[in-house]
Write a structure and sequence with these properties.
Strand order of the largest sheet: 2-1-3
Number of helices: 2
Helix content: 25-40%
Radius of gyration: 23 Å
Distance between the termini: 49 Å
Order of helices and strands: EHEHE
């Protein structure tokens, strides 16, 4: 379609689709980690086993009553069983009394 001698008119579509998910509020931050149980989730990437050990030491120095559920308890969160492992986490966290989670390492 032409507007004048040298101008052309083109119709275009917006490339973004409507939002499918609404923003949800974040979980309330814990006041302290003392007396809390923290789960460790690892995707077996990089050197998470070493990182989690250092995190444990540092957090125990700051919060002496903190407890950890080791990543070995949950298995590889990036494996052929990923869907089953991730789907089981809410129940497992409840059964283990988990208050917070550290998930790492990713790529």
């Amino acid at each position: 379609m032409k507007n004048s001698k040298n101008e052309q008119y083109f119709e275009a579509l917006w490339p973004r689709s409507p939002r499918q998910m609404q923003v949800k509020p974040l979980a309330r931050r814990l006041d302290t980690l003392n007396g809390k149980t923290v789960a460790q989730l690892w995707d077996f990437q990089y050197r998470g086993d070493e990182v989690f050990l250092l995190l444990e030491e540092s957090l125990k120095a700051r919060f002496p009553d903190i407890r950890f559920v080791n990543w070995r308890e949950f298995g590889n969160t990036r494996s052929a069983q990923e869907r089953e492992i991730v789907a089981s986490l809410p129940r497992r966290f409840k059964d283990l009394g988990v208050d917070a989670v550290i998930s790492g390492m990713g790529c």
